[in-house]
Design brief:
Length: 371
């Protein structure tokens, strides 16, 4: 699908992109910052600068446990720290940040408790930062835009948090959770996730029941880490549009499996058909930044989705996790306006750009959420 507007260049492109970005509802559909907040490593109210590899010292106010910093070498061990914070949300013009809750392998024996700790810290962050709001409705997003505040959406990433009981969906709903992905990369009670070189299945019977319950409650279903089998089964089951919160479409939904660097470790069959099924469902693909070379590479991923299924089914799902895997020009979430400028320079219309920045996710939230 070609652009419907003549490309702009130079200062004209910069000015128009800045005006458009300021006007947009900007939604990023994936960050793991809550993991580091809940571990006591960082708070969202302050921007943390990650130092160079020589002579670095941790910010003294961030952690009280003796020796905790000894396990923190420079590099991706910093995780999301330095890439997401409320000041960076504001600089980046974000209206909403989705905050995922994921349980690491060595925490599976206390998955529920670990997830509840992240819920606690999310609510604590909203209490301690008046300009950061819990979002449970589309009206809440619009209110943030009007007031110039930033919203956060609580999301579960992987079904281990639910144990073996889908009633936990009701509990988490009451705590403010409005998006759930049943899998990460592991196999669990509800489904299989994408695992390298593992023959994987799709949804279990409880997994299918969970999708149905999410539709009933008004929780957005995230298909981002499901196997291709589970992805297709969810699209067939769900009566509401879903999101694929964070992936690279060219790597995970290639036209030919051999075009992807993950071939043959992942099931990558029928990538184009998968995107078409997502579009038929009314869903939205969140293009992630991690692992891309630069801003242009990320926008190439956005263009790939648009070319295959149109501009109504693509958004942003950054998933930044460490400086080494961040694209040049998108090192942290404050740099999101660079995407808007790149889209303007490529000649995409204002209407299309507003959809990409957040309008498409807003459409899904309005359709699914019942508040």
């Amino acid at each position: 699908m070609k652009s419907a507007k003549k490309p702009l260049s130079g200062s004209a492109a910069r000015r128009h992109a800045a005006e458009l970005h300021k006007r947009a509802i900007v939604i990023d559909c994936h960050s793991d910052i809550l993991m580091d907040v809940a571990k006591g490593y960082v708070r969202t109210g302050k921007q943390v600068e990650i130092p160079g590899a020589v002579g670095w010292r941790p910010p003294f106010e961030l952690h009280e446990k003796p020796g905790a910093w000894a396990a923190w070498p420079i590099g991706n061990q910093f995780g999301t720290i330095g890439q997401y914070s409320i000041p960076q949300f504001v600089t980046g013009g974000l209206t909403v940040q989705v905050c995922a809750m994921w349980v690491e392998d060595d925490e599976l024996d206390c998955a529920l408790r670990r997830t509840l700790e992240m819920v606690y810290w999310f609510h604590r962050e909203t209490e301690d930062n008046p300009n950061f709001k819990l979002i449970t409705s589309a009206d809440g997003i619009r209110r943030c835009k009007r007031e110039g505040t930033v919203g956060g959406i609580l999301a579960i990433e992987s079904g281990e948090a639910l144990g073996t009981d889908i009633k936990m969906l009701d509990v988490f709903y009451r705590l403010g959770v409005r998006m759930v992905g049943l899998a990460h990369n592991r196999r669990n009670f509800f489904c299989d996730g994408t695992q390298h070189h593992i023959k994987s299945a799709g949804l279990t019977a409880p997994g299918k029941a969970a999708v149905k319950r999410m539709n009933e409650l008004g929780i957005v279903v995230d298909v981002g880490h499901l196997t291709m089998t589970g992805f297709r089964e969810t699209l067939e089951l769900s009566t509401q549009p879903v999101v694929l919160s964070h992936r690279s479409p060219r790597k995970f939904f290639p036209l030919k499996p051999e075009d992807s660097p993950f071939h043959p470790g992942y099931d990558l069959a029928g990538g184009k058909e998968g995107l078409q099924a997502l579009a038929k469902n009314g869903g939205v693909f969140g293009v992630f930044f991690m692992g891309s070379k630069d801003v242009s590479d990320v926008v190439d991923d956005i263009a790939y989705v648009i070319d295959l299924v149109g501009p109504d089914h693509v958004g942003l799902g950054s998933d930044l996790y460490g400086a080494q895997t961040a694209p040049k020009g998108l090192e942290d979430i404050s740099k999101v306006p660079a995407i808007t400028e790149s889209l303007v320079r490529r000649g995409y219309s204002d209407k299309v750009i507003l959809k990409i920045l957040g309008g498409n996710f807003m459409r899904v939230f309005e359709a699914v959420w019942k508040d």
